[in-house]
Here is the input.
Amino acid sequence: MSYITSTFLVEVVASANAHNPNAYRGTLFPEEVYTTPIMKKKFNDKDTEHKDSKFYIREKVELGRMVERFCPLWIKYAVMVVLVIYMYGAMCLKYASGAVSFATVLIEFAPKFPFDPYYLGLIIFGVLSLFFCFGNIENSKGLQLFTGAFRLVVIILLYGTTIFSLGKYGLNVAPVFNFGEQLSHIANVFGGTVFVFVFHHSISGIVFPIRPQSQIKPMFMASHLVGGTLLALEGLLAYLAFSGLTNQCSPTEFPCRIEDLFNLNFSAIPVIGVICNLYPMLNVSSVPVLTITLRNNLMQVVPIKEWLSKSESKAAKFML
Here is the structure.
């Protein structure tokens, strides 16, 4: 489902580019951006046969602009309302999970912290997120690369520790068809699903700088296959190792029952537990993607730039 919707949006972006008769029909990047002829051949020349097509993506068309080009105005505003509500929910999910993981680690090292560390986690998460929200999605490449590498480390730790638990403590399997128990976790399933599919609204910013464009769909297919396989394996390992346990997780209890945030299952393991528990704070890298996309779309609905440009005040010029 995620692959179908993401590639559908790529097609809509291409159609929106074709719908703009004034779009420049040349290359997006000038020749001087390529450091060597080999780099130019690798990233630019592969698209040569596609550049004469009016569907070649030369313009970053945000969701609001796509709807504007194909639908009546009222649909555009309806989509913007849905987008704002959806992104508010998605950002709340990321802020909450990041703050919970931060609080768990802080309590372990400072059990007599003077106030609830959850709120400190929210503040830190908010400040870091705000710092990365300036500019555009394609400017956050370094942050995304760092986050990707750290995610890989955490995935290895989560899977390795779960497999170690299976080897040392054996299977701890709950009944498969206990529907009453499973339905009580439906909110977690919904939250996790939103978490996984959260990138669709940012497709235009993601695909715009990709060269060669012919690799966009294979890239999405490969990433969905890898991501889907890893998620399925993680769920299976968690089920085999922890689903039958009932004891509460704590800094001294391992193994323990599956927590709402799976990384909390490893709190009792020195070093590994700290790294896994800080993992949701990495959502600092994805919140700017949400915020930037929301900002770019709202700018197309509310003419904030036009209002600011009419003012001569220094504050307005700074905001502009």
Q: What stands out?
A: The mean pLDDT is 83. DSSP finds 14 helices and no strands in the chain. The two ends are 39 Å apart (CA to CA). The longest helix spans residues 73-109.
